[in-house]
UniProtKB/TrEMBL annotation, chain A:
It comes from Sciurus carolinensis (Eastern gray squirrel). CDD domains: PTP-MTMR9. One of its GO terms (molecular function) is protein phosphatase binding. This is Myotubularin-related protein 9. Belongs to the protein-tyrosine phosphatase family. Non-receptor class myotubularin subfamily. It comes from the Eukaryota.
Amino acid sequence: MEFSELIRTGRAQAELLPGPEEAPLRGTLCVTGHHLLLSPGPPSTPDLWLLLLRSVDSIEKRVAGDSGTITLRCKDLRVLQLDIEGVEATLDIARSIEALSSLESVITSFPFFYRPKGLRLGDAWHFHPPERYYKRVARETNAWRLSEVNQDFSLCPSYPRAVIVPRAVDDDALAQCARFRQGGRFPVLCYHHAPSGTVLLRSSQPLIGPQKRRCAEDEDLLRAVLTGARPGAQGFIVDTRSAQAAKQARMTGGGTEAKAAYPGWKRLHRPLERGRALQESFVRLVEACGDTEQSMDRWLSRLEGCRWLAHVKEALSTACLAAQGMEREGACILVHGAEGTDSTLLVTSLAQLILDPLSRTITGFQELVEREWIQAGHPFQLRCAHSAFSHARPKHEAPTFLLFLDCVWQLGRQFPLSLEFGEGLLLALFEHAYASPFGTFLCNSEKERCLCEVRTRTHSLWSGLNQPKEQRKLRNPLYVPNPLAIWPSVEPQSLRLWQGLFLRWTRPPEPSEVAWEKVWQIVTEREKTGDSAHSFCLSPQPKQ
Amino acid sequence: MEHIRTTKVEQVKLLDRFSTSNKSLTGTLYLTATHLLFIDSHQKETWILHHHIASVEKLALTTSGCPLVIQCKNFRIVHFIVPRERDCHDIYNSLLQLSKQAKYEDLYAFSYNPKQNDSERLQGWQLIDLAEEYKRMGVPNPHWQLSDANREYKICETYPRELYVPRIASKPIIVGSSKFRSKGRFPVLSYYHQEKEAAICRCSQPLSGFSARCLEDEHLLQAISKANPVNRYMYVVDTRPKLNAMANRAAGKGYENEDNYSNIRFQFVGIENIHVMRSSLQKLLEVNGTKGLSVNDFYSGLENSGWLRHIKAVMDAAIFLAKAIMVENASVLVHCSDGWDRTSQVCSLGSLLLDSYYRTIKGFMVLIEKDWISFGHKFSERCGHLDGDPKEVSPVFTQFLECVWHLTEQFPQAFEFNEAFLLQIHEHIHSCQFGNFLGNCQKEREELKLKEKTYSLWPFLLDDLKKYLNPLYSSKSQRFTVLEPNTVSFNFKFWRNMYHQFDRTLHPRQSVFNIIMNMNEQNKQLEKDIQDLESKIKQCKNKQSDGVLTKELLHSVHPESSALKTSLCLKEQTLLPVNDALRTIEGSNPADNRYCDYTEEFSKAEPGVVSLEYGVARMTC
């Protein structure tokens, strides 16, 4: 397939209104295979305005007289307006954008063509999180091993090649477990909490079914987890569905662990919203945020009605529950819902952030996202196919990852000195998860990424982000390592709407940006004066 | 003290307000003449000033004792359980008496003794000089002059002695106008914008009824518009909702008829009255106090209370003022009913938007002294200092502080002071510890001889200046001369640090302000040290042409400054010593376990497991 077949009009004269407080941009509009370009024309600067077509969420066209208007609503929640000369040109450009922005083929997507200066292909794909993380676990405990049983993705198509499992369980038993868990997602280790010697595991639901099936290997595995931690250790299974829903899942072949079959393990149900309901919540919040004219009462009632902050609260408190179980109760925790690829990951990744100081560094957080979301098989391609503006009926879309980022932002607000990264990194991850020139968030699982050769043919977002010029945008200038667990308050009075994301394009950003600039200035000044005062102390010494 | 029967009760429990598992601290309760004091087993002290107590409630006896709930005006709520009902009853009765004094002379300010002599006290009172302030604004000038009409409080008892009026307004006009205005509060100058030569004036509603007119009043308004050489028309802003203003006409009051006054443009801005505001706050507090509050209940409660809607209305009115002056160059006259509540809010906030001076610490004190204290906002009645009519109590000034807080959130660099400053002022409008906010008008304050018998708050705030500075403040920035806040609904947030000031579990565990403040301090200290060292080196070089720089040199510069040494040692690893970084707001200590519980699921799941509390990261000090 050639892109040229989809491009009806190459170019047209147009004026772009990038946002409420920005100056309009005038020039020649041009549609290419992956981008929408606006070139201001020869006399002015060579400043080219560029939009990745993939990031267009919905498109709306209107014609009047001999010109037309196209409104582009982007996946990063930006709204752009293009005034185009010529009715034909408007319609053609609209159709081209529509066709090109909804292409589903992965290997013709932009990351496969993107070759930025200063980056080499294959860089930063050196992240091999399970293996890398295992090294750390192996230093702390001997009860776990790295298994390559999933080397060819045959056991579980959504797991990476290597997983961390109890040393006492062999690969054959794992194969049996995989058969007993939906999608083959048998319980694997995601975090070892060294101070208490307990572990955090995740899996999918067991396939109990109406006949109440059991699986001896699965039961052995969970027993081995407890004995590996400490003789007589306790375990909690955090099911992210309600007790009712978990029971109902039996009718469709799923279910939840029976008490009698897993001695030492107790079940807790913490229903978390998922799927379509979560997507709708997101859509309604974004709708409310787009209306700058509404009264105070209307705004507050819409904020309540969309329930987004209620989801934030639930996610955070469930993560706290899991973290508390490990740290305070000395219990092992297994988290799962149904498929184990959405709310499960939300809980396990947040719990790690609360407990593990290393995951709060920039590198640690990137590893956490890579290990607990990308490699753990969160289906990014399905979940992030559309953002909040799409008119298409949502099929598999759900902003689970965005909810995770929002929760991290709340943690950062409550512990402003304890995260090495700032809002900038979270915003970047949100943008790139939905549309990106990098390959990191492509596909739904490691298996698919291998098939598409993502690793060798695209650039990694991490190498893009870790370039020195990006650092200032991503770092938290006030970071000081905090060796303690960070327990957030989950009272509604303590949670706040993430204005930096949801109102990013509707509010003037300057005052807070200027203020952060000032913070940077104070911090760097500190380093400077510190340095020179330091050298003063040192330099006279040789003369003694 | 005749009201105190029991001074000490042991084994009292203090319940955590938000804990769903009824966590408590045990300690001893002391009752003094001025304070209620609770000392828990970790020796942590909780002081509650009697004047801060808004209500005391004795709940039904339980198995563990008699519950006593105390609500404070600074939004602290404490829940004690006293083991013996008799003790509880005694304390309850004492607090009822002590928290509601009948006479001004019994208030704390009259017994508070900070160990200053009379001249220091007098100096304190002279810190804020309003005559100086009017000079700064640029009056008197060819258009405006000081009027001596109210020198003896003859025309208006609730106005200050010194008032500025248009030069062309003669005394008979002023007297005539005052007779046509509710409580004699005729139009006077509140703020003069030098550059635009436009003024903000204030007054009370006219006694116009359905048809009454007053030529003197019409003349006075004309004089105000003529005092503006640039723009001939002026705005008359009635801060009430139109319906309320119309209802007032039936009582012989009302609002200006545009036909009778030349060159005025009349405008309602719709801020609700003190009773609506009081019940709005009441609703807000009820929502907040709920245990295990859900997100949805919180937001629907916030909406139903209407509190943020009222805050937005005040802010919008102030913006109207600022725009009239900046964009149209027009003078504005503001009134409500009596001109001491909504009018004070709008005039002071409008001036704050226009003049960056009021955004400094000193300037903000001046602003409060001018538009609130001197123009007769009835602090004692609104704050319920004495045992009076509960219907006169209303959070008008609290709303003003909240509007200012919202501005500080939108313009983080425009204010010299920080949130703690606003909270501290709020604390003291109710504390009755200083004389500034006692009484309802200047005349009353003079009769109480406050300047001789009590102290002024402001010098005490300045003594603690460091605590109140905004490290991000940039005084030079041109962009902040006039603030143009955006009042889109998203920008109004619940002010957690005000309404939950004492509920520590709800707050961020680390404070950005503190750390930036520390850094700023250290930067300054280090720069100074560098300079010292440089000059020392120069001196040494001069003295001993190329002699030995002794160790003594290094140590002589700052033998006492050990903080600097540590920070230098730690430079390589961290920005600040770790302890510093982990210190939280309000300096908590290790004994202060700020637990909050997310759930009790564990205990439900298995009765064998004792109820669980989530720990807050323990802040090491």
